[in-house]
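Archive entry. Fields below.
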Amino acid sequence: MEENSKYIKRCFTLAEKGVGFVSPNPLVGAVIVKDDKVIGEGFHQKYGEAHAEVNAIENSKEDVAGATLFCNLEPCVHDKKQTPPCVPLIIEKKIKKVVISNLDPNPEVNGKGVDALKKIGIDVETGILEEEGKELNKFYFKFISQKQPYITLKLAQSIDGKISASKKEQTWLSGPESKKIVHQFRHSHDVVMVGAKTIRTDNPLLTVREVKGRNPIRVILDGKFLLSHSYKVFNTNSEAETWLIVAENFSGKKKIKSFEARGIKVFPLKSDRDGKINITDILKLLAEQKITSLFVEGGQQVFSQFLEANIWDELFIFQSPRILGQGINSFELNNAVPLKIHEVSKTGDDILFHIIR
Amino acid sequence: MEENSKYIKRCFTLAEKGVGFVSPNPLVGAVIVKDDKVIGEGFHQKYGEAHAEVNAIENSKEDVAGATLFCNLEPCVHDKKQTPPCVPLIIEKKIKKVVISNLDPNPEVNGKGVDALKKIGIDVETGILEEEGKELNKFYFKFISQKQPYITLKLAQSIDGKISASKKEQTWLSGPESKKIVHQFRHSHDVVMVGAKTIRTDNPLLTVREVKGRNPIRVILDGKFLLSHSYKVFNTNSEAETWLIVAENFSGKKKIKSFEARGIKVFPLKSDRDGKINITDILKLLAEQKITSLFVEGGQQVFSQFLEANIWDELFIFQSPRILGQGINSFELNNAVPLKIHEVSKTGDDILFHIIR
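PREDICTED_STRUCTURE:
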């Protein structure tokens, strides 16, 4: 049993190497063990490319016949995808036993992979470190089961709950260590999202610079479609994709075209009279675009909308060691929101609250 | 050397038993050691009563002649006080050696006690765990050296920096564990202070109920002298003393008398036209009244005044795990205040920030 946990943990570690590159696929790692010796390892490296099991088999230094395959997710059996299914390969290669952490929640697989293996006489164990496996693939699990991206909110505020000292310009509130964590989050999420006001006051790039990683798609919420295309996010298309979500009844064809001419994708959605778009409509759009994870970086209105709709998964609040004593509140809500604080830690001089809904 | 630290630490532990009862005197513990054995212990138990050294000598099971006296503060030599000085007693009892943590900052003693002991041929060592000794007696050291009470600010807020959801009524923001810590602070400080608005919205008792201890003097700041005497603090005189600080030009003799008739001490101080009294004038008044420590519990205006004046020593912020999203800000300042966060810890469900200026 301890052996199972050890190799499944190794699968998790391998799987994590795919963070940022495999979405909307899950993170998967695979280890092949024969005579108590690892003979092959692999992970799913990039969306559209080979699965972890295939890579592990190909990387094996010995014949895999009679070996045990460890894999954090159930091997696939369906062919509704870009690469051939893994189960037939496992059978063909005469793998003797398969040990799995999670069944694939995808209804095309969900248990069918295990059934197919068992039917042919392959020994299968499931549920090893199940919770850790679900945590690793929390984006995928939510996306598949709820048809919504996993939502991580992040804000930097002063100890007295201000995200900026003034409406007009940015107050830089977090230290270099916190910035690194934020860039790591950008790398791991499919999309980074901010509202129009954040673009106007901070003019951020929203790319990954402080750590090694790939840039997420930048999604800008601008219901009233008031932003000009002078901002950085609209002029750095070669670095990262930018999408603009606007209210249908605030969007003229000409303006849309002027953004599209710069390579920006514009998505008009229905809204209320003030150009406010329902969060669920935004999430529906993103899910249709195969976005499994959303990193929301501001500002007050966007945070407040997610909290009021009660649609979010995790909230990270970086508290900068200062009292601003005036400025923009982190949130403006009609009703208080009780929170479950999962962890409080120091990152440089900042205090990081990790909150799970 | 390790022996010295061990017995001085024991002095600290003994001294702490005097917390809440010896002010404006310092906290002092004494240990008498003969042939590597503790033969007597004592501490300063109550203002006006015997000093630690005297108690330790009196409690000794053996003759103290030839013994070593450990004491966290320099023995006194002056007689400008309620009890006879300790140095002559030490000499009379033929104590051989005296080991001290801190010299007494009081100019009536400061080194003179040590000199008198040395002069008679008694061996004296000083400076053992000096910083810990100063920390233990931080109220006394500040009071003596700066002629101002030590100031501890405490607030309970939501994670988004609100001390209340509404102007009109109290929002209960901290859990039972935090409440205990607050009551412990009330016990250890000479005075607990709040502004008139806190009295009006919370109608607090400001006594020590959650832990064993003595009640501090309750000082209410009401520049404009608008409070009626219907509130709890003005009707529980048998439990704790209440002082009222008001602006001179807002205070009629008749109203003062009506409070005095209830046993409330009223202190009229000069103010600006709006009845705002300078913090330094308040501190001067308190120092004249021999108040060595001040525990400030609210509200927004009082906190902000202390922060703007930059006159405070420690700040404790209890953050309740919720977002209020509206309400009263913890502070209203014209300028941001950078902070040094000394420690962040959990107390029940709350997160406690301990900040030292």
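CURATOR_NOTE: Chain A has a mean pLDDT of 95.
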